[in-house]
Design brief:
Pfam families: SpoVAB. Keywords: Membrane, Transmembrane, Transmembrane helix. It comes from Clostridium scindens (strain JCM 10418 / VPI 12708). The protein starts with a helix and ends with a helix. It has 138 residues and is mainly alpha-helical. The chain has 6 helices and no strands. It is extended, with a radius of gyration of 20 Å.
Length: 138
Amino acid sequence: MWAAQILLAIIGLSAGVAVAGGLFSFVIGLGVVSDFADRTHTGEHILLYEDSVALGGILGNIFFIYQISIPHGGWLVPIFGLFGGIFVGCWSMALAEILNLFPIFIRRIKLLRCIPYIILGIALGKGIGAFIFFFNRW
């Protein structure tokens, strides 16, 4: 019976490592991390950034699975939410950029003006929607 449990643990761990590796390589492949490094002119630290992304995912899973609490960590929640929102927003924009979503959409609807306002509207809508969602949960 314990051999079956060990086998299941090995299969589960292997599947988790494969899925996490695929996700992190997808994030790195989209160019989110390299774009951050390019915009901040800190390209010499790209390996540190990639390691930080992987470490953040690993620690986030460990904290979630084992229900580890941080003493007096309530003040970190808004900071984490801000950085998490920035990262997800940049990730989605990088994916849209890779797929050439915006140029195709703008060409199809023949939109020539107000593009910065539309992008600002998308960002504000995402921010206000997240605020309402989290405010209603609290």
